Amino acid sequence: MNFFEYLHSRRHLLLAQTLEHANIVVMSVALATVIGVLIGIATYRSPRARGMAMATAAAILTIPSFALLGLLITPFGLGYVPAMVALTLYALLPIIRNTVVGLSEVDPALTEAARGIGMGRLRSLTTVEIPLAWPVILAGIRVSTQMTMGIAAIAAYVGGPGLGNQIFSGLANLGGVNSLNMALVGTLGVIALAVVLDLILGLLGVLTRAGHRPRFAWRGRDRRLTAAGALAGAPPATATSPTTGGQR
User: Fold this and answer.
1) How many domains is the chain partitioned into structurally?
2) In this structure, how many other beta carbons lie within 10 angstroms of the beta carbon of residue 208?
C-alpha cells in the first residue's frame, strides 16, 4: 500500500486525529494566553516581578517534554489532561514575554492623558494599553502555537490525542507494513496544521489591528479636549487663534 492509498483508506481516522490535535493545541494556547497575559499585566511595571515570572516560564521550557509528561502521569494519569497541562506550561514563556514587552513600549504620555480625562487604571489598561500592545502579544501567541504544535505530537507518549499516535505507531513498528506511511502522515499532518493555524492567527491580527490608534495633541488649553476626542474616535480639535478668536 503506497502513501496515497494509506491516506485514502484511513481518511476518517486521520481527520479525527487532526481535529483532536488542533483542538488540544488551540485549547492549550488559549489557556496559556489568559494566564500569560494576566501575569504580564501584573508584573510588567515591576522589574523584579517580571524577571521572576519570565525566569520561571523559561525554566519550565527547559524541561524535556518526555520528562515533564512523565512527571504529570502521577497526578493526572494518562490521556488528555496531562497533555494539555504540559502544552499550557510550554506555551507560557513567549506570551508572558511579549505581553511585558508590548505593555512596556506603550508611550507613557498616552496613559497619562487617559487618566487626565478621567479614565481609571483598569479602563486605561483595556482601552489604551492592551489594544496598543496587542500586535506584540499576538506575535507571542503565534510563536507559542507553532511551538506547542510539535510538542503535542509527543503527548501521544502519555495517551494524548492527535497525530502523534500515527507517528509513534509508525516508529514503534518500523520496518513493518505501513509503518513509514504512519510516520509520514503524522509528520506531514502536523506541519500542515501548523501552517493553517499560523495563517488563521495572521488573519486575526489583520482583522483586530486598530485602524486608528489613540493620538494626543499637547497644545495648551486644547490638551484635554484633543485627548478625549482621540480616545473617543473623534477628529482632534483645532486650536483657535487667541488674537482673532478663530474669525477673520
Assistant:
1) 1
2) 11
